[in-house]
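Action item from last week, closing it out:
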Amino acid sequence: MTHVNFSESIRALLSEIIDYAGLFPPSQLSMAEAVANYANYKMSDYNWMLGRFVVPAARLDEFLDSARGLLPQNESDVWKLSVLAGDDISETVHRIKNFNRANTPSVICDSIEIKVDTNQMIERVAQVVPANFATYFELPLDGNLDELTKTLAIRGGRGKIRTGGITENAFPKNEQIIRFIKTCLAANVPFKATAGLHHPLRCRKPLTYEKDASVGVMNGFLNVFLATGFLRHGCEENLIDELLEETQAANFSFNADGVLWRQKYFLGTTELKNLREQSIISFGSCSFDEPIADLKKIRLL
């Protein structure tokens, strides 16, 4: 493996940014294919961008069957899993504890993701999941968001926003994304994004990999992550809306000091590191190759 140097600000923004969700649409690979891909990505020049392997709790045994012989033999390069909880959160936690007890240090489940829509559900999950797990709660983007996020803050939970899907109506409006980000920032709740973020910048692309797939506008992960950074910086919503609409890579300039947008708006490298550690943690993608190919195309890698 060759070693490639990247701008310090690029590394600050993109380190461990992609949680690999190859099991899910639109890729929807078999377990064997997804696990083999993850093993290859762990050995690639871009492994520094790779986060967790996303897997449903009910498929942990299947994961293990496919991963035998590929897992590392020591904890220096441990595989980390983010587990999608089943309907019974107690059963999910029980499965995870047994899995970790049997397979640490080569692989560990240390993150749980669950969809909720009431404070009672958040409270129930918080009572059952041990504090050493990072727990991401996928929240509805409606009028209940403020109240749910406050409960997350009290319970030490994290947020999750669905930023797309395989149909056009699965993509939230800019104002919904901005509201979610602002609500999480105000409550000091870290969050992750998932779905529809295969590309660095906003674009119009096929929504699936099918031959006759419908085409739609997709959010860019650089747009969403930098929008979070500039909202932390105190920028007005109308400017953030323009940033979420940005399609031109030439309007971004990265160097060791940070990133400059439109030759006017700046986030320093330290701010980018804090952004990733404290606010927007990662995004789930069914592709790891596609984001990298696009980043190369716009000469950020």
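Closing note: The longest strand covers residues 107-115.
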